[in-house]
Design a protein that fits this description.
The chain is α+β, with helices and mostly antiparallel strands and 226 residues long. It has helices at 2-21, 205-225; strands at residues 26-32, 36-40, 70-74, 101-104, 112-116, 122-132, 143-146, 149-151, 160-166, 171-172, 175-181, 187-201. 18% of the residues lie in helices and 33% in strands.
Length: 226
């Protein structure tokens, strides 16, 4: 009987610890990194550009050297952490490895970028780094739609580069779209897109071990009682 009581006491302590350390899920406010994105490749010289504004380092499927080619299943310039603070003509080249992806409205109309995430994060805001130089037909988009809904924003001052933050979104789920509407006859250039919100965190391994210890002890107590 004494051994049974000791075992049951061990189970109780393990379950109490598990209750404190093993929530069904926990939340952490943090930047949220996509696992991949799909979109049309940028345009370039074949479309009348001075350079090529491709997503040249994209890691997924699709031709990264063809204007408007369908890219899928990878990551590239838009999530590489390089937030350009220079105007497009200072950081672009014919190789398409510059800091911006650019789309020309007469060739690639209103590009849609589909981002994929692990789990079901809650996204509160999206920040997009844009060129609004108004040089060479490059200007901020006329509209930005998130999951098909137009969001209000203030573009960077004309002649500059800057960020646009779309806040108060409360997006939940593993997939979200951003659509960039170009001004008719103009290019839109993006160097980085980032997300902030709340990610779902899995239980800690130590918590799982405690729960496993408790479950193992139950049949042991039963055998000793019999």
């Amino acid at each position: 009987m004494k051994n049974v009581k000791a075992t049951l006491s061990l189970i109780a302590r393990a379950f109490c610890a598990g209750a404190m350390l093993l929530p069904a899920s926990s939340s952490l406010a943090a930047p949220i990194a996509p696992t991949s994105y799909d979109m049309p490749n940028g345009d370039g010289q074949a479309s009348g550009g001075t350079y090529n504004y491709w997503d040249r380092n994209y890691t997924g499927a699709g031709s990264t050297t063809t204007d408007g080619a369908a890219l899928s299943g990878g990551l590239g310039k838009l999530t590489d952490g390089v937030v350009s603070t220079s105007l497009w003509y200072n950081v672009s080249n014919a190789q398409g490895t510059g800091e911006y992806v650019g789309w020309y409205r007469p060739v690639t109309l209103n590009p849609v970028i589909t981002f994929h995430f692990a789990g079901n994060p809650s996204i509160d805001s999206i920040t997009i780094q844009l060129d609004n130089s108004n040089v060479g037909g490059v200007i901020a988009p006329s509209a930005i739609r998130v999951d098909g809904i137009s969001e209000s924003f203030t573009p960077p001052a004309l002649g500059t580069v800057g960020s646009v933050t779309l806040g108060g979104l409360s997006l939940v789920g593993p997939t979200h779209t951003i659509e960039l509407d170009q001004v008719p006859g103009y290019w839109v250039f993006v160097s980085e897109i980032s997300f902030d919100g709340t990610a779902t965190q899995a239980p800690e391994p130590a918590s799982l071990a405690l729960l496993g210890l408790a479950l193992t002890a139950i049949p042991l107590a039963r055998r000793r009682r019999n």
